[in-house]
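Researcher: Re-running this chain for the archive, since the previous output was lost when a drive failed. Same request as before.
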Amino acid sequence: MNPTPFLDAIVPFRTITTRDIPADALTVARQCILDWLGCALAGSAEPLSEILRAELLRDEAQGNATVVGAAARASARTAALLNGAAGHALDFDDTHLAMSGHPTAPILPAVLALAEELDASAEALLAAFVAGVEVACRLGSYIGAEHYRLGFHATGTLGTIGAAAACANLLHLDDPAWRNAISLAGTQSAGLKASFGSMAKPLHAGKAASDGLFAARLAARGYIGAADIIDAPVALAAAAANGKTNPAALEASRDHFLIRDTLFKYHASCYLTHAGINAISSLRGQFEPAAIAAIELRVHPSLFTVCNIQQPSSGLEVKFSLRATAAMAALGLDTADAATFADGLARNPALVALRDRVAVVADSSLASSVAHVTISTHDGCTLAAGADTGMPAADLALQASRLQAKFLGLATPALGAGVTAQLSTALLNMDAATPVRAITQLAVRPAFGPK
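Model: Regenerated structure tokens:
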């Protein structure tokens, strides 16, 4: 029996280049980079980012890597951690159902910092980034939902391995070193869903980026890990997924680039709240909030351990509350504006009153990306709608337009309108030979340094 089915299946991503990647997958990769950088620029002003900069840059000598949204530069590993946390601070970054997590947040900061250090081209960055996303998402589909159900945050766990795979590609590691990079990343992978709604959740992404980069650099120096960190009897699949692997999922994705299935956020909250928000928003105009007697929100029971905080006490916790986000949608609050989720929102009397009239009901017949909502009014009227947020965009040009508008809204306060527009264009039209440094130099805010 093949002792390393997963590692052997992902070997092609060790040496993949942009010539091996379909045009639509490269388009989505550029959109992922645009979307993440906007989230990171806005997230760099969050308290958690300020705290991390104050701690990590205190004794750090000047480095080669950009700290997004700040005047400081840092070592590649420190920049990866800071940028990874900043990019996930608002929980507004992309997600992927195969991974059950956020692929870009842990992978791009790692390979971006390394690309700056190596003075790599945009072409090399794109190939390495795609390699990392493909590995992380394939691993997510291979070990399945059990890993997430048990309480592991895949952004932190699988993201570490994806980050290592991306950096290993950029470093052109040979096969033994590449396998060691995956192994060393796997033994460092961590992150628990109990952290959702706190500053620790973005830290998962930052640590995954930093540790994945660390793993690849150790492997490049000859550091040796376990021969099989995924499929061995006491390795990741056994320890963190009860050994329930799905080899058929690897075969099914053989001829398909999973990055093409990336899902982008247009509400600044946990992605699993979005179907409920969309369903209720589709009924807006047919009811007055004051007339609502009750809202029933039917979702898959797996959401109960992810985003069902009953009485959130902070803006971060609101992002992980099906009841609160449903009430926001019914009240017509702007869920697309990250600033809406300030801590005071959780104490808003109108929101609290309506939130307490929302009942979340488990329905195992629904997919995790689907929500059905029924609104009952005091005069006996009943309104119903459903929504599914699990389908990737078919029109990539339209998606680019939506993401560009989102980017402008997030990045302009940090960079100003002129630089933001220039950076947006540069990201969506990255030329193969463009140095990564030519792009990242636009992503700093000289007047905004570490505190």
